[in-house]
């Protein structure tokens, strides 16, 4: 499916952003302690890269089952009851994600209209930051829908997957 491929590509991009963030901070440490010249932009660049990574990688983390699950009660339920519990959880997540996407998109539009810049030493256009947040949130919303469908089709049953690994 195309959404799965998009999420996977964005997961690689998110990983690259984490790597870049680490390299930026390494550069800052070297410039600060070896050359005595701290970089005024390194912390801001690293923060923006990590923010982008978090929003671009979240949908893939859900798709791959990488989020933490605590199934003390749910894994003991029959399959239908378990599916209902997961569906309720996914629906609650969809409500939150919908409003987050809507807010981020609204801020992106306002940032573009008013030429907002990020505060701090590195005045990046805020539309980039809010745009990445809106994109990541929208993909998470779509992935939640896909997850519900897969849950009810039996394509993604967490307990059965764990049993297969043992």
Characterization of this structure:
The protein has 166 residues and is mainly α. Helices cover 76% and strands 0% of the residues. It has five helices and no strands. The protein has helices at 2-33, 42-63, 79-114, 126-153, 158-165. Helix 1 (2-33) packs antiparallel against helix 2 (42-63) and helix 3 (79-114) runs antiparallel to helix 4 (126-153). The two termini are 28 Å apart.
Indicate the proportion of strand residues.
Answer: under 5%
The span between the termini is 28 Å
Helix percent reads: over 70%
Poorly predicted runs of 5 or more residues: 159-166
Q: How would you spell out the order of helices and strands?
A: HHHHH
How would you classify the helix and strand content by structural class?
mainly alpha
Global geometry = elongated
List the helices and strands and how they pair.
Blueprint: H1 2-33, H2 42-63, H3 79-114, H4 126-153, H5 158-165
Briefly summarize what is shown.
76% of the residues lie in helices and 0% in strands.
State the main characteristics.
5 helices; single chain; mainly alpha; 166 residues; disordered C terminus
């Amino acid at each position: 499916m195309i959404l799965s491929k998009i999420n996977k590509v964005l997961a690689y991009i998110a990983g690259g952003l984490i790597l870049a963030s680490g390299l930026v901070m390494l550069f800052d440490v070297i410039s600060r302690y070896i050359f005595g010249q701290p970089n005024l932009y390194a912390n801001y660049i690293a923060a923006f890269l990590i923010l982008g990574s978090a929003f671009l990688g979240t949908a893939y983390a859900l798709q791959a089952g990488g989020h933490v699950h605590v199934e003390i009660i749910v894994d003991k339920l029959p399959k239908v009851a378990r599916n209902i519990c997961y569906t309720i959880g996914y629906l609650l997540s969809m409500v939150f994600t919908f409003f987050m996407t809507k807010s981020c998109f609204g801020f992106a539009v306002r940032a573009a209209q008013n030429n907002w810049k990020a505060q701090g030493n590195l005045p990046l256009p805020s539309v980039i930051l809010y745009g990445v947040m809106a994109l990541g949130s929208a993909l998470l919303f779509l992935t939640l829908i896909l997850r519900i469908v897969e849950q009810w089709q039996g394509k993604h049953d967490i307990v059965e997957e764990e049993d297969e690994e043992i």
